[in-house]
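Progress report, Aim 2. The chain analyzed during this reporting quarter is listed below.
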Amino acid sequence: MIFNGHRDKTRLMELEPKHISELITKYLIGKLSDEEKNLLDKWLEDPYNQMQFDKITHGESFLNKFEKYEKYNTQKAWKNLLRSKRKPYKEWLAYAAVILIPLCIGVLIFQNSLLENEQVQLLSENKEATLDEILLTTNKGDYVLGKADTIYQIGSVDVASDSEQLSYNSKKTDNKPQELVYNTLQTPKGVKYKVVLSDGTEVWLNSETKFRYPVNFISNKREVFVEEGEAFFDVTRNVEKPFIVNFNHKKIQVLGTEFNVKSYEDEDNDLVTLVEGSIKLLTENNDVELVPNQQAVIRRINDKMQIKSVEGALYTAWKDNVYLYKNQPLNTIVRDLERDFDIRIFYQNQDLKDEKFSLKISRKLPFEAIFSAIEKTHEVAIEIKDNNVVIRKK
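Predicted C-alpha coordinates for the chain:
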Protein backbone atom coordinates (compact mmCIF):
# COMPACT_ATOMS: atom_id res chain seq x y z
CA MET A 1 0.00 0.00 0.00
CA ILE A 2 1.48 3.33 -1.05
CA PHE A 3 -0.79 5.61 0.97
CA ASN A 4 -1.50 5.28 4.68
CA GLY A 5 -3.52 7.39 7.11
CA HIS A 6 -5.71 10.48 6.58
CA ARG A 7 -4.51 13.29 4.31
CA ASP A 8 -6.33 16.55 3.66
CA LYS A 9 -6.45 18.32 0.31
CA THR A 10 -3.34 20.39 1.04
CA ARG A 11 -1.39 17.26 1.82
CA LEU A 12 -2.72 15.62 -1.37
CA MET A 13 -1.22 18.35 -3.50
CA GLU A 14 2.18 17.43 -2.07
CA LEU A 15 2.00 13.87 -3.35
CA GLU A 16 4.55 12.95 -5.98
CA PRO A 17 3.13 12.73 -9.52
CA LYS A 18 3.98 9.02 -9.74
CA HIS A 19 1.65 8.39 -6.78
CA ILE A 20 -1.19 10.17 -8.54
CA SER A 21 -0.34 8.21 -11.69
CA GLU A 22 -0.48 4.94 -9.79
CA LEU A 23 -3.87 5.89 -8.39
CA ILE A 24 -5.21 6.59 -11.88
CA THR A 25 -3.68 3.37 -13.19
CA LYS A 26 -5.43 1.38 -10.45
CA TYR A 27 -8.65 3.19 -11.33
CA LEU A 28 -8.27 2.11 -14.99
CA ILE A 29 -7.85 -1.56 -14.08
CA GLY A 30 -10.44 -1.50 -11.27
CA LYS A 31 -7.99 -2.13 -8.42
CA LEU A 32 -8.56 0.94 -6.21
CA SER A 33 -9.03 0.29 -2.51
CA ASP A 34 -11.60 2.37 -0.62
CA GLU A 35 -8.83 4.51 0.89
CA GLU A 36 -7.21 5.07 -2.49
CA LYS A 37 -10.57 5.95 -4.03
CA ASN A 38 -11.07 8.62 -1.38
CA LEU A 39 -7.63 10.03 -2.12
CA LEU A 40 -8.34 10.14 -5.84
CA ASP A 41 -11.77 11.74 -5.30
CA LYS A 42 -10.23 14.50 -3.17
CA TRP A 43 -7.52 15.10 -5.74
CA LEU A 44 -10.22 15.43 -8.42
CA GLU A 45 -11.92 18.24 -6.49
CA ASP A 46 -9.44 20.54 -8.21
CA PRO A 47 -11.00 21.41 -11.64
CA TYR A 48 -7.60 21.36 -13.32
CA ASN A 49 -6.92 17.88 -11.99
CA GLN A 50 -10.33 16.72 -13.22
CA MET A 51 -9.56 18.07 -16.69
CA GLN A 52 -6.23 16.21 -16.81
CA PHE A 53 -7.89 13.06 -15.48
CA ASP A 54 -10.52 13.18 -18.26
CA LYS A 55 -7.83 13.60 -20.93
CA ILE A 56 -5.73 10.74 -19.60
CA THR A 57 -8.56 8.24 -19.10
CA HIS A 58 -10.40 8.95 -22.36
CA GLY A 59 -10.40 5.58 -24.11
CA GLU A 60 -8.96 6.38 -27.55
CA SER A 61 -6.57 9.02 -26.22
CA PHE A 62 -5.24 6.59 -23.63
CA LEU A 63 -4.79 3.88 -26.26
CA ASN A 64 -2.78 6.25 -28.46
CA LYS A 65 -0.56 7.27 -25.54
CA PHE A 66 0.03 3.63 -24.66
CA GLU A 67 0.99 2.70 -28.22
CA LYS A 68 3.30 5.70 -28.53
CA TYR A 69 4.97 4.78 -25.23
CA GLU A 70 6.13 1.46 -26.63
CA LYS A 71 8.31 3.33 -29.12
CA TYR A 72 9.74 5.52 -26.36
CA ASN A 73 13.37 5.61 -25.34
CA THR A 74 12.68 5.28 -21.61
CA GLN A 75 15.97 6.80 -20.45
CA LYS A 76 15.34 9.84 -22.61
CA ALA A 77 11.76 10.03 -21.33
CA TRP A 78 12.92 10.08 -17.72
CA LYS A 79 15.52 12.77 -18.46
CA ASN A 80 12.83 14.89 -20.08
CA LEU A 81 10.56 14.29 -17.12
CA LEU A 82 13.16 15.37 -14.59
CA ARG A 83 14.11 18.39 -16.70
CA SER A 84 10.44 19.41 -16.81
CA LYS A 85 10.37 19.76 -13.00
CA ARG A 86 11.56 23.32 -13.53
CA LYS A 87 8.13 24.02 -15.03
CA PRO A 88 5.07 24.96 -12.91
CA TYR A 89 3.88 22.09 -10.74
CA LYS A 90 0.58 21.44 -12.53
CA GLU A 91 2.20 21.34 -15.97
CA TRP A 92 4.82 18.92 -14.72
CA LEU A 93 2.16 16.77 -13.09
CA ALA A 94 0.20 16.44 -16.31
CA TYR A 95 3.37 15.57 -18.24
CA ALA A 96 4.38 12.98 -15.65
CA ALA A 97 0.97 11.33 -15.64
CA VAL A 98 0.93 10.93 -19.41
CA ILE A 99 4.25 9.07 -19.29
CA LEU A 100 3.85 7.15 -16.05
CA ILE A 101 0.43 5.62 -16.64
CA PRO A 102 1.53 3.69 -19.73
CA LEU A 103 4.72 2.86 -17.82
CA CYS A 104 2.78 1.33 -14.92
CA ILE A 105 0.59 -0.78 -17.19
CA GLY A 106 3.23 -1.60 -19.80
CA VAL A 107 6.17 -2.31 -17.51
CA LEU A 108 5.79 -6.09 -17.67
CA ILE A 109 5.69 -6.06 -21.47
CA PHE A 110 8.71 -3.75 -21.60
CA GLN A 111 10.72 -5.81 -19.13
CA ASN A 112 10.04 -8.95 -21.11
CA SER A 113 11.40 -7.29 -24.24
CA LEU A 114 14.66 -6.45 -22.42
CA LEU A 115 15.22 -10.06 -21.48
CA GLU A 116 15.38 -11.36 -25.05
CA ASN A 117 19.06 -12.15 -25.07
CA GLU A 118 19.31 -15.87 -25.66
CA GLN A 119 19.65 -18.02 -28.76
CA VAL A 120 16.81 -19.91 -30.42
CA GLN A 121 16.48 -23.12 -28.50
CA LEU A 122 16.47 -26.51 -30.23
CA LEU A 123 14.38 -28.82 -28.07
CA SER A 124 15.85 -32.16 -27.12
CA GLU A 125 13.90 -35.38 -27.65
CA ASN A 126 12.90 -35.57 -24.00
CA LYS A 127 11.78 -31.94 -23.70
CA GLU A 128 8.54 -30.43 -24.92
CA ALA A 129 7.66 -26.78 -25.50
CA THR A 130 5.44 -25.25 -22.87
CA LEU A 131 2.02 -23.87 -23.78
CA ASP A 132 3.28 -20.28 -23.65
CA GLU A 133 6.06 -20.65 -26.25
CA ILE A 134 6.12 -20.01 -30.00
CA LEU A 135 7.05 -23.35 -31.54
CA LEU A 136 8.60 -23.94 -34.98
CA THR A 137 8.54 -27.55 -36.16
CA THR A 138 10.99 -28.47 -38.93
CA ASN A 139 12.36 -31.68 -40.42
CA LYS A 140 15.45 -31.12 -38.25
CA GLY A 141 13.57 -30.72 -34.97
CA ASP A 142 11.50 -28.25 -32.94
CA TYR A 143 12.60 -24.71 -32.11
CA VAL A 144 11.33 -22.20 -29.58
CA LEU A 145 11.12 -18.73 -31.17
CA GLY A 146 10.59 -15.17 -30.01
CA LYS A 147 13.51 -15.04 -27.60
CA ALA A 148 16.36 -13.72 -29.73
CA ASP A 149 17.49 -12.21 -33.01
CA THR A 150 18.79 -15.31 -34.78
CA ILE A 151 19.76 -16.30 -38.32
CA TYR A 152 20.10 -19.91 -39.44
CA GLN A 153 19.65 -21.95 -42.62
CA ILE A 154 17.20 -24.59 -43.88
CA GLY A 155 18.44 -26.00 -47.19
CA SER A 156 18.89 -23.10 -49.62
CA VAL A 157 16.78 -20.73 -47.51
CA ASP A 158 18.08 -18.27 -44.92
CA VAL A 159 15.77 -18.02 -41.90
CA ALA A 160 15.79 -15.06 -39.50
CA SER A 161 13.72 -14.80 -36.35
CA ASP A 162 13.21 -12.18 -33.65
CA SER A 163 10.62 -11.42 -31.00
CA GLU A 164 8.00 -10.38 -33.56
CA GLN A 165 8.49 -12.34 -36.77
CA LEU A 166 10.07 -15.23 -38.65
CA SER A 167 11.40 -14.52 -42.17
CA TYR A 168 12.42 -16.86 -45.00
CA ASN A 169 14.76 -15.63 -47.74
CA SER A 170 15.27 -17.98 -50.68
CA LYS A 171 18.79 -17.78 -52.12
CA LYS A 172 19.70 -18.28 -55.77
CA THR A 173 20.85 -21.84 -56.42
CA ASP A 174 21.79 -23.98 -59.38
CA ASN A 175 19.19 -25.96 -61.33
CA LYS A 176 19.38 -29.02 -59.11
CA PRO A 177 15.96 -30.36 -58.07
CA GLN A 178 14.79 -29.11 -54.67
CA GLU A 179 12.79 -31.03 -52.12
CA LEU A 180 9.47 -29.59 -50.93
CA VAL A 181 10.02 -29.09 -47.18
CA TYR A 182 7.30 -27.90 -44.81
CA ASN A 183 7.60 -26.03 -41.52
CA THR A 184 4.83 -25.66 -38.94
CA LEU A 185 4.52 -22.62 -36.68
CA GLN A 186 2.32 -22.65 -33.58
CA THR A 187 1.42 -19.64 -31.44
CA PRO A 188 0.34 -20.07 -27.81
CA LYS A 189 -2.51 -18.42 -25.94
CA GLY A 190 -2.28 -14.63 -25.97
CA VAL A 191 0.55 -14.38 -28.53
CA LYS A 192 0.49 -13.23 -32.14
CA TYR A 193 3.44 -13.66 -34.50
CA LYS A 194 4.30 -12.74 -38.09
CA VAL A 195 5.78 -14.96 -40.80
CA VAL A 196 7.35 -13.64 -44.00
CA LEU A 197 7.32 -16.52 -46.47
CA SER A 198 10.03 -17.10 -49.07
CA ASP A 199 7.98 -15.35 -51.80
CA GLY A 200 7.55 -12.22 -49.66
CA THR A 201 3.96 -13.02 -48.59
CA GLU A 202 3.31 -11.75 -45.05
CA VAL A 203 1.17 -13.79 -42.66
CA TRP A 204 0.07 -12.67 -39.20
CA LEU A 205 -0.89 -15.50 -36.83
CA ASN A 206 -3.32 -14.85 -34.00
CA SER A 207 -3.47 -16.54 -30.60
CA GLU A 208 -3.52 -20.37 -30.58
CA THR A 209 -2.91 -20.76 -34.31
CA LYS A 210 -1.20 -23.62 -36.14
CA PHE A 211 0.16 -22.78 -39.61
CA ARG A 212 1.96 -25.17 -42.03
CA TYR A 213 3.81 -23.88 -45.11
CA PRO A 214 6.71 -24.72 -47.46
CA VAL A 215 10.16 -23.40 -46.64
CA ASN A 216 10.49 -22.62 -50.35
CA PHE A 217 7.80 -22.58 -53.06
CA ILE A 218 9.20 -24.85 -55.79
CA SER A 219 6.05 -26.08 -57.59
CA ASN A 220 3.64 -24.25 -59.89
CA LYS A 221 1.46 -23.22 -56.94
CA ARG A 222 2.03 -21.77 -53.48
CA GLU A 223 0.02 -23.84 -51.03
CA VAL A 224 -0.22 -23.31 -47.25
CA PHE A 225 -2.41 -24.68 -44.46
CA VAL A 226 -4.16 -22.95 -41.56
CA GLU A 227 -4.65 -26.10 -39.51
CA GLU A 228 -6.21 -24.23 -36.58
CA GLY A 229 -6.78 -20.63 -35.54
CA GLU A 230 -6.74 -17.27 -37.30
CA ALA A 231 -4.39 -15.74 -39.88
CA PHE A 232 -4.23 -12.54 -41.91
CA PHE A 233 -2.57 -12.78 -45.35
CA ASP A 234 -0.93 -10.09 -47.44
CA VAL A 235 -0.09 -12.16 -50.53
CA THR A 236 2.66 -11.27 -52.99
CA ARG A 237 1.19 -11.29 -56.49
CA ASN A 238 2.50 -13.94 -58.88
CA VAL A 239 0.24 -14.79 -61.83
CA GLU A 240 2.27 -17.90 -62.66
CA LYS A 241 2.01 -19.30 -59.13
CA PRO A 242 -1.45 -18.87 -57.56
CA PHE A 243 -1.53 -18.79 -53.77
CA ILE A 244 -3.79 -21.38 -52.11
CA VAL A 245 -4.82 -21.40 -48.44
CA ASN A 246 -6.27 -24.63 -47.03
CA PHE A 247 -8.40 -24.59 -43.86
CA ASN A 248 -10.94 -27.05 -42.43
CA HIS A 249 -11.38 -28.94 -45.76
CA LYS A 250 -11.81 -25.69 -47.71
CA LYS A 251 -9.56 -23.73 -50.07
CA ILE A 252 -8.95 -20.10 -50.96
CA GLN A 253 -7.40 -19.30 -54.34
CA VAL A 254 -5.69 -15.94 -54.79
CA LEU A 255 -3.12 -14.19 -56.95
CA GLY A 256 -2.37 -11.22 -54.69
CA THR A 257 -4.58 -9.70 -52.02
CA GLU A 258 -5.26 -9.14 -48.31
CA PHE A 259 -7.70 -11.32 -46.40
CA ASN A 260 -8.36 -12.89 -43.01
CA VAL A 261 -9.14 -16.53 -42.19
CA LYS A 262 -10.63 -17.48 -38.82
CA SER A 263 -11.15 -21.18 -38.17
CA TYR A 264 -11.20 -22.30 -34.52
CA GLU A 265 -12.57 -25.70 -33.54
CA ASP A 266 -14.45 -24.26 -30.55
CA GLU A 267 -16.50 -21.84 -32.69
CA ASP A 268 -19.63 -22.50 -34.73
CA ASN A 269 -18.49 -20.74 -37.90
CA ASP A 270 -15.41 -20.30 -40.06
CA LEU A 271 -14.96 -16.71 -41.27
CA VAL A 272 -13.17 -15.53 -44.42
CA THR A 273 -12.98 -11.73 -44.70
CA LEU A 274 -11.61 -9.99 -47.80
CA VAL A 275 -9.91 -6.62 -47.28
CA GLU A 276 -8.34 -5.95 -50.68
CA GLY A 277 -8.21 -7.66 -54.09
CA SER A 278 -10.28 -10.74 -54.87
CA ILE A 279 -10.36 -14.38 -53.83
CA LYS A 280 -12.24 -17.52 -54.76
CA LEU A 281 -13.50 -19.63 -51.85
CA LEU A 282 -13.90 -23.34 -52.60
CA THR A 283 -15.90 -25.70 -50.38
CA GLU A 284 -17.49 -29.10 -51.06
CA ASN A 285 -20.79 -27.39 -51.91
CA ASN A 286 -19.88 -23.92 -53.21
CA ASP A 287 -17.41 -21.90 -55.27
CA VAL A 288 -17.77 -18.23 -54.39
CA GLU A 289 -15.79 -15.14 -55.37
CA LEU A 290 -15.53 -12.36 -52.78
CA VAL A 291 -14.99 -8.64 -53.30
CA PRO A 292 -13.42 -6.28 -50.72
CA ASN A 293 -15.36 -5.89 -47.46
CA GLN A 294 -17.29 -9.09 -48.03
CA GLN A 295 -17.23 -11.93 -45.55
CA ALA A 296 -18.09 -15.61 -45.96
CA VAL A 297 -19.65 -17.15 -42.84
CA ILE A 298 -19.43 -20.94 -43.09
CA ARG A 299 -21.17 -23.25 -40.63
CA ARG A 300 -18.61 -25.80 -39.47
CA ILE A 301 -21.26 -28.47 -38.94
CA ASN A 302 -22.61 -28.56 -42.50
CA ASP A 303 -20.57 -26.12 -44.64
CA LYS A 304 -23.59 -23.90 -45.32
CA MET A 305 -22.36 -20.49 -46.40
CA GLN A 306 -23.62 -16.94 -46.05
CA ILE A 307 -22.02 -13.95 -47.77
CA LYS A 308 -22.42 -10.56 -46.12
CA SER A 309 -20.97 -7.05 -46.32
CA VAL A 310 -18.76 -6.03 -43.37
CA GLU A 311 -16.18 -3.47 -42.30
CA GLY A 312 -12.98 -5.36 -42.99
CA ALA A 313 -11.05 -3.40 -40.36
CA LEU A 314 -13.21 -4.89 -37.59
CA TYR A 315 -11.93 -8.37 -38.42
CA THR A 316 -8.25 -7.52 -38.93
CA ALA A 317 -7.55 -5.08 -36.06
CA TRP A 318 -6.10 -7.95 -33.99
CA LYS A 319 -2.92 -7.96 -36.11
CA ASP A 320 -2.31 -4.35 -35.00
CA ASN A 321 -2.76 -5.33 -31.32
CA VAL A 322 -6.22 -3.81 -30.98
CA TYR A 323 -9.50 -5.32 -29.85
CA LEU A 324 -12.08 -3.70 -32.13
CA TYR A 325 -15.76 -4.64 -32.04
CA LYS A 326 -18.87 -2.90 -33.34
CA ASN A 327 -22.28 -4.19 -32.24
CA GLN A 328 -20.93 -7.69 -31.63
CA PRO A 329 -22.46 -10.25 -29.21
CA LEU A 330 -20.72 -10.18 -25.84
CA ASN A 331 -19.96 -13.89 -26.22
CA THR A 332 -17.89 -13.17 -29.36
CA ILE A 333 -15.72 -10.75 -27.38
CA VAL A 334 -15.50 -13.13 -24.43
CA ARG A 335 -14.29 -16.05 -26.57
CA ASP A 336 -11.46 -13.89 -27.93
CA LEU A 337 -10.48 -12.82 -24.41
CA GLU A 338 -10.51 -16.40 -23.14
CA ARG A 339 -8.26 -17.36 -26.04
CA ASP A 340 -5.79 -14.59 -25.25
CA PHE A 341 -5.70 -14.85 -21.46
CA ASP A 342 -5.57 -17.70 -18.96
CA ILE A 343 -9.05 -16.94 -17.60
CA ARG A 344 -12.44 -18.60 -17.19
CA ILE A 345 -15.58 -16.57 -17.79
CA PHE A 346 -19.01 -17.28 -16.31
CA TYR A 347 -22.37 -15.65 -17.03
CA GLN A 348 -24.76 -15.12 -14.15
CA ASN A 349 -27.39 -14.11 -16.73
CA GLN A 350 -27.18 -16.30 -19.85
CA ASP A 351 -29.09 -13.84 -22.04
CA LEU A 352 -26.11 -11.45 -21.71
CA LYS A 353 -24.23 -13.62 -24.22
CA ASP A 354 -26.29 -12.20 -27.07
CA GLU A 355 -26.21 -8.56 -25.93
CA LYS A 356 -24.52 -6.34 -28.52
CA PHE A 357 -21.35 -4.51 -27.47
CA SER A 358 -18.84 -2.13 -29.05
CA LEU A 359 -15.25 -1.85 -27.86
CA LYS A 360 -11.87 -0.46 -28.94
CA ILE A 361 -8.91 -1.09 -26.65
CA SER A 362 -5.29 -2.24 -26.81
CA ARG A 363 -4.69 -6.00 -26.74
CA LYS A 364 -1.55 -5.35 -24.69
CA LEU A 365 -3.40 -4.19 -21.58
CA PRO A 366 -4.04 -6.56 -18.65
CA PHE A 367 -7.36 -8.36 -18.90
CA GLU A 368 -8.52 -6.50 -15.77
CA ALA A 369 -8.24 -3.21 -17.66
CA ILE A 370 -10.18 -4.58 -20.63
CA PHE A 371 -13.04 -5.86 -18.47
CA SER A 372 -13.03 -2.59 -16.56
CA ALA A 373 -13.59 -0.78 -19.87
CA ILE A 374 -16.45 -3.12 -20.76
CA GLU A 375 -18.05 -2.57 -17.37
CA LYS A 376 -17.75 1.22 -17.55
CA THR A 377 -19.30 1.53 -21.00
CA HIS A 378 -22.04 -1.13 -20.81
CA GLU A 379 -24.81 -2.18 -18.45
CA VAL A 380 -22.96 -5.11 -16.91
CA ALA A 381 -21.24 -5.76 -13.60
CA ILE A 382 -18.02 -7.77 -13.66
CA GLU A 383 -16.36 -9.50 -10.73
CA ILE A 384 -12.81 -10.82 -11.03
CA LYS A 385 -11.28 -13.25 -8.56
CA ASP A 386 -7.97 -14.79 -9.50
CA ASN A 387 -8.51 -15.95 -13.10
CA ASN A 388 -12.27 -16.33 -12.82
CA VAL A 389 -14.51 -13.64 -14.30
CA VAL A 390 -18.22 -13.45 -13.47
CA ILE A 391 -20.46 -11.27 -15.66
CA ARG A 392 -23.97 -10.26 -14.59
CA LYS A 393 -26.54 -7.56 -15.21
CA LYS A 394 -26.29 -4.38 -13.15
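The domain at 121-315 is CATH 2.60.120.1440 (Jelly Rolls). The chain has three domains: 9-114, 121-315, 321-393. These observations will guide the mutagenesis work planned for the next reporting period.
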